[in-house]
Amino acid sequence: MKARKPNDAARSAHERLFPGHVSTLAVTDPELIAYFDNFAFDEVLRHTPDLPERTRLAMQLAAMIAVGAVPEYRVMLGAALTVGVTPVEVKEVVYQAVPYVGMARVFDFLHATNDVLTERGVELPLAGQSTTTPETRGADGLAVQKQIVGDTTVDTMYANAPADEQHIQELLSANCFGDHYTRTGLDVPTRELLTFALLAALGGADPQVRGHVGANLHVGNDRATLIAVLTALLPFIGYPRTLNALRAVDDIAPATSEEDHA
Predict the structure, then answer these.
(1) In which domain, by residue range, is 21 found?
(2) Tens digits of residue pLDDT in 97-136
(3) Which terminus of the chain is less hemmed in, N or C, by CB atoms within 10 Å?
(4) Number of domains making up the chain
């Protein structure tokens, strides 16, 4: 039987993203790599024509952080930089992951990012992107939190938290939103889309995925965008986590009759 190989479209996309790179797995596991490349670098791209390439790669980087795939992240980071994702944007993807997957996981990805950037001649540290101070992060974070998820939702979270948990709500506002969402380098809709990608890939965070489907809609990321992101993540996070996130999308942003018949 003739050996399967990636098709022309997959090879072209692969060469654009990873110029001159030949995977060792293409030698040892040619059938699997043919399946995967045709899937990830042809089929998925045909189903996400309106998702900008730079956005797709940023979301895939976030997902790789969430699943702990450092070697694959290094390779995909090179592709992201090749197609124009800036060093600042890459760093902001990594920083945005911290409140959602924890610094214990992000440490290795931060070091990997620094290694790749240094190898490419990027001088570190990059220009700072923070817009808050220790004195303003609480108020500024609360303001952007309400912008993203809505005044009523945030007020309810504070009102429903027992007295011994109030500090968690305050930390959420000041740290997750005040330290991270207020940064420049990426706009709020992109950060919220990254958060959706991180939570979908992380698994075990279904209530948070649902909450951030609503938050994405609130900042202008529609159902089509969320489905495109999940389609782009599918080859890297698998079907169970993708389908769980799709259920959240269907529950919070159900398809219209036009979309049902598209």
Answers:
(1) 7-46
(2) 999 999 999 999 999 999 999 999 999 999 999 999 999 9
(3) N
(4) 1
